[in-house]
Amino acid sequence: MARFYSRVSVLVVALALAVLCAAALVDGRRLPRPPRRPAAVHENYDSPPSYSSSDQQPAASGHGFSLNLEHDAGGPESAARISTPEDDKAQSFHNRAASFGFLQEGKSASRNWDGDQDQDDDDEEEQVDSSKGQQLGYEVPKGKLAGSIPDKAASQDHKHRPTYTCLLCEGEAPCTPNARPCVNAVQCYKSHVRTEEGQEIFTRGCITKTDKIALTCYTPSSSRLNSHSKRPTRASGQYSIQCCTGNDCNNGSFPELEPIRTLGEEESSGDWKLIFAILGPVMVLLLPAGVLVVLYFKRKHRKRKQEAARTIADPDTYYASDELLRATAAGDSTLREYLEHSLTSGSGSGLPLLIQRTLAKQISLAECIGKGRYGEVWQGYWHGERVAVKIFFSRDEASWSRETQIYSTVLIRHESILGYIGSDMTSRNSCTQLWLVTHYHQLGSLYDHLNRVTLNHHQMMKICLSAINGLVHLHTEIFGTQGKPAIAHRDIKSKNILVKDNGCCVIADFGLAVTHVQSTGELDVAPNPRVGTKRYMAPEILDESINMDCFEAFQRADIYAFGLVLWEVCRRTMSYGIAEDYLPPFGGLVPSDPSFEDMKKVVCSDGQRPTIPNRWLCDETLTGMAKLMKECWHHKSHVRLSALRVKKTLAKLAQSDYQIHLDVD
Asked: What residues make up the domain containing 569?
């Protein structure tokens, strides 16, 4: 178990570290980037600068491009150029050619760098003239080098080329043209640039040299990143240039850039993708681990729950830890044989086994199936068999002790008496509990059964006959060496009679029982502050006229209560398709929990008894039952029938009804 917990702890720590690493990576991605140099458009119409091959030109930093405006020294003329990495290569070759004297004197060469690259201040271009080139063995005719400035013939063509007037402006929209236009331009242009930071710059300019046309006008539009996010991510750069010929032809609307697709919050950043990429595998590993942990604890709980309930194949091995608790019956019987013999409900000759301080450990409680004033009843498992565990409160120890004593009586076992397994005293949650373990009957008490279903004549008679058989067995004393004393129940009611699966009944709850031995005349009434159920108390108990020294008085009180139980059963018996709803005795005459005075007034003073429905008079069997119950609840106790006489009367009624098929012999 400790090893399992250690493995789980290691797994949890590893998962926590993975989550922390993911969070750190996400935070690192969200750190602000250093500001990049904004794109700049250099423009000077009054005194344009002239650059040599070794000088550095100011360049507009962008995302992979630069925008430069170059001017000749001849006047207020301007030229715009946007260079790309490919253009940089061509310009470098151009500068090299100039350094060797391949270009005409007086011409300037410029070197442009990509906006994302740093200029190397230490890298100087070597200046050599054409004579040095000849010394090195180069024969280079003027104007024939590819990529060089046109020769004199080309310059003469430029003189005959028409010139135009162009508008000049630069800035954000609206871009207002300058009052002083550009003259002697070979072409006009207008450009639309979006910088890395999203700033839009609009430019109107002119090209005064034909060698700048290809570099400026034939540069394709660029869109380095076609989307902006709602949250700051990478910067983007876009530009578009349109060239034209004609006076003021660069007027009008500027070229449009490609629309920027705005992403949603969940798509705009790669953070979520990174989180999902890390947490996805973690969750894949965590989910099976969680399932395994749950299954482990469920299995452990089930195993602990059924540990005491499973059948033990070798009882000698099971009880080997406590030799003092191993018991054997007479002869060579083993403990298992003794238990099986003791738990039978046949001959009743076996002595119930009490295994103190061990029975509770062998029982696994499943669910509470009943609560009362004096305790609770639980369903449990013992040796793989369902049992009922009656748990007494510690204040009701007298009832537990008395019931244990009655169940331990020799020959008490009977098919109509609740099967007894054992008693134990245990501690749960620092509280002493008194356990009494019996057989389990899933149909519950007769009270619950009558509330659920209606009965036919056969079912009614089966219940009544089996219940009276148990009462007869209690009231009868068995003489002999291992005899049984006569027992009076003193708390007969529908809640203390349980229904078995076959429809028969058993009598339970002997906490108030008294015993009597005729040979000695001994009457054993255990001191117990508990009293019986007031609703079922006989008149002589209510008016306190009962003779507590006479055992027969207790037997007659049992018959009175049994007559009320007969009334409850017959009320739920169908005749001609009719049956009344369940009603406890004296229902409607007294409160749901009547006091001693309430019952005394109704039973003793008013002499009332439960009402007999008129429909019973039309049914011969129910009419006989009504007559029998009246004789049972008679006001004078000595007039009441004995338990044996009630049994014989019920058997006679069963034989006279063709709807009832019972073996009553």
From this structure: 446-656
